[in-house]
Amino acid sequence: MTQHSLDDYLAYVDRVWQGQDTLLAHLSGAYTGDALVRIGEQTGFFPAFANVAVFDTGSDGLVLVDSGDVRTARRLHTAVTAFGTADGAPRKDVRSVVYTHGHVDHVFGVAPFDEDARARGVAAPEVVAHEAVAARFDRYTETAGYNSWINRRQFGVPSLNWPTRYRYPDTTYRDRLTLRHGDLTFELFHARGETDDATYVWVPELKTLCTGDLFIWNSPNAGNPQKVQRYPEDWARALRAMAELGAEVLLPGHGVPIVGAPRVAQALGDSAELLESLCTQTRELMNAGLRLDEVLHRVRVPAELLAKPYLHPAYDEPEFVVRNLWRLWGGWYDQNPAHLKPAPEAELAAELAEAAGGAAVLAGRAADLLGRGELRLASHLAETAALAAPEDREVARVRAEVYAKRAAAETSTMAQGVFRWAAAESAAVAEGSDLTTELTRSEGGRRRAAGGIAVGVVADADGCSCGPSDGSGAAAGRLR
Predict the structure, then answer these.
(1) Number of separate helices (H) and strands (E) present in the chain
(2) Distance between CA atoms of residues 214 and 268, nearest Å
(3) Which of 107, 299, 320, 440 lies at 20 to 30 Å from 38 by C-alpha?
(4) pTM of the full predicted structure?
(5) How far apart are alpha carbons 292 and 264 in whole angstroms?
(6) DSSP readout, 7-47?
């Protein structure tokens, strides 16, 4: 850090834990600088949107857990270099970098260290990861177009292009791996959770746990509707296993550190309990023969858990986790026979519009429902009307209004992103403009389109970035 002391940062961390402050300052880079935060004599922390933990092993250089994203790569290199030359000692090189998983915001900070090693004629860092990381990178390359589209929509960044070149690991493992560098031991454990390639790292000498994205200061990202399978039950088991380690410091993939064994145990235990509750309820309802629709609307999460400052549904949300469990345990068929081999959506919409008396009638009914606060029903009718009459500007205006208000009412990034994008699509039809123009009409929309980051319970005062809005705030977020 360049403008904040360690005491400043730890005081801020405590306020976040108490629910007296938000993650905004941390995630927006207020504490990111050209120096690491020293959490202990041998531990440095790079507080950014995607965090990096740095360990001074004494006689055998530095070890990094994660490497952040491309935007912070140069600053990370500067901060780590300064950490490795503290008090005028000879420079300590980075010996290993552990990827906790293969998401792009955790693996794009190695390049400056590789370049520096080549320039100085020393060994490049060894990158260590679970064996499934390489397959993830392969898949990302093969589906770059799809990943570009879904992330544009999720985060409101119409110019986003998914990367196709990655720094692959040098060493991989399957279940468990122990690394020894200098004074420190790094125990790597594989777990399935947000990803199938996740690693958490335990440093027993320092009683420090690096969780990667198995803990992110949000309700667990176990249901992302536009991404590949998540593993909520395995994730809960990993959280319980981590809690058994007795860590006194938890360094998360996103969000602020947790300091103190009681707090670490509480955070891990509460997160596990939330996932276990979702798994138990979903399984029981599936076993009872209910359709997905009924399961979705019957599962309830204990309100006291979602009220925790580290479990707010500001990125993912429990309803999406239920869907992911259904997909994991039961496949994609939702038990509605009409959905097994459905008619094209536009053809069905045309039939329903004709039966109702026209697309305008459906749109009018959607507007009525919206006025009564029936946002889910209003969405169904507005969507049907727009599919039946895609060029009708009045129908488009209603659809834009419906989804703008839906976005403003949501707490999770994932729901907000989908609804904002839908609102912008229809606003472009209604106004005769284009998607990018509508996504960037507001200051909030312009920040998102430029890649601005906010995850957690933070204000987004201008609501949706396009179409009519009631101006209500909502939590915003961005991961990957």
Answers:
(1) 18, 13
(2) 9
(3) 107
(4) 0.92
(5) 35
(6) HHHHHHHHHHHHTSS-SHHHHTTTT--SS-EEEETTEEEE-
